[in-house]
């Protein structure tokens, strides 16, 4: 990136109400068949337009073509039975009825490559594409086949790598893996989590990112956050390992978070997508608030490696609020950019 402090989002943005019920995760589609295919494309165009209007530098699809950041990818795989459901505890936090791994997993065809190609055709700006991380995928399923989280994760990593290579080939500039599970299963992160992540990015020439956060502003997450105490030091466990990994960029949450910001020092040398927008609140940040978060982060990240971003996806927010937050992000980055160039 030539632009100093290039802005981006963690991934998802709200969908138009004609496509899916707003302000809801896992919202069912309102269209069917060809209308749904066309509707998703139109929503992607609008989402891109809104990012451009707000002045976002690294743009994405706003995840308009997927219902959920993990499930939609898994739906396209063989070996997972969505009819056969078991109740498991996701992120060690909340119970959910999840699909079952019933045989060897494989990816019979590309999942997002056509959508990414479509996005690429719409813009000359750098584009980022998000995929679920292997550990987070494993944590969203009941495994009756491999009966090993590590084995299943390493199989997923290979499939993700195939998908990522195809995304790179259609011109995606940054491929991001969403790994909120890294904030929970520290032992597994050191035993096989980072290894599987590195398997997923093997051979890629484009930039790679990992997004680790405390989740969307849904109740299960806000309740969990209340249990974490005054200081959230989860990042301290995984950052040293990520610092030594081949991942180029680390995306994390900062604003309104109880994460001690100095923990970013642990990933010194990496590019850092600093969450300067709270996605768990409808209150739109002021440009000055965004700038204040970025200035703090600059104590631990070199200016040419700082990428202002949102804490997490904004799918559950209203479109107005999300629009306001995108503009605030840009305006806050602008303030600090001017200070750095003065
Ligand atoms: Zn997130």
From TrEMBL:
InterPro entries hit by this protein: Met_Synth_C/arc, Met_Synthase_cat, UROD/MetE-like_sf
UniProt KW keywords: Metal-binding, Methyltransferase, Transferase, Zinc
GO biological process: methylation
Residues annotated as domain Cobalamin-independent methionine synthase MetE C-terminal/archaeal: 5-333
Leader sequence residues: none
EC number(s) recorded for this UniProt protein: 2.1.1.13
Gene Ontology molecular functions: methionine synthase activity
Cofactor: Zn(2+)
Membrane recorded as keyword: no
Cross-referenced SUPFAM superfamilies: UROD/MetE-like
Database matches in Pfam families: Meth_synt_2
Protein name: Methionine synthase
Top-level taxonomy: Bacteria, Pseudomonadati, Verrucomicrobiota, Verrucomicrobiia, Verrucomicrobiales
């Amino acid at each position: 990136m030539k632009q100093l402090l290039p802005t981006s989002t963690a991934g998802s943005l709200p969908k138009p109400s004609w496509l899916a019920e707003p302000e809801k995760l896992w919202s069912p589609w309102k269209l069917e068949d060809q209308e749904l295919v066309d509707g998703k494309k139109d929503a992607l165009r609008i989402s891109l337009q809104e990012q451009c209007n707000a002045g976002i530098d690294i743009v994405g699809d706003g995840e308009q073509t997927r219902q959920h950041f993990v499930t939609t990818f898994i739906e396209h795989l063989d070996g997972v039975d969505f009819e056969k459901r078991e109740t498991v505890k996701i992120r060690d936090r909340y119970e959910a009825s999840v699909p079952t791994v019933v045989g060897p997993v494989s990816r019979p065809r590309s999942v997002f490559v056509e959508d990414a190609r479509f996005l690429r055709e719409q813009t000359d700006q750098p584009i980022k594409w998000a995929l679920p991380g292997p550990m987070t995928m494993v944590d969203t399923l009941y495994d009756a086949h491999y009966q090993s989280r590590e084995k299943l994760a390493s199989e997923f990593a290979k499939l993700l790598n195939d998908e990522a290579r195809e995304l790179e080939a259609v011109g995606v500039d940054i491929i991001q893996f969403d790994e909120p599970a890294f904030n929970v299963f520290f032992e597994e992160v050191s035993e096989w989590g980072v290894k599987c992540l590195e398997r997923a990015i093997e051979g890629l020439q484009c930039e790679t990112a990992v997004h680790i956060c405390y989740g969307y502003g849904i109740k299960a997450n806000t309740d969990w956050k209340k249990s974490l105490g005054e200081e959230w030091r989860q990042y301290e466990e995984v950052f040293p390992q990520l610092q030594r990994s081949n991942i180029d960029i680390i995306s994390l949450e900062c604003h309104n978070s109880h994460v001690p910001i100095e923990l970013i020092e642990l990933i010194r040398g990496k590019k850092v997508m600093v969450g300067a927008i709270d996605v768990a609140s409808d209150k739109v940040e002021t440009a000055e608030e965004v700038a204040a978060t970025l200035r703090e982060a600059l104590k631990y990240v070199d200016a040419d490696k700082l990428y202002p971003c949102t804490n997490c996806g904004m799918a559950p927010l209203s479109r107005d609020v999300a629009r306001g937050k995108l503009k605030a992000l840009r305006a806050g980055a602008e303030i600090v950019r001017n200070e750095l160039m003065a």
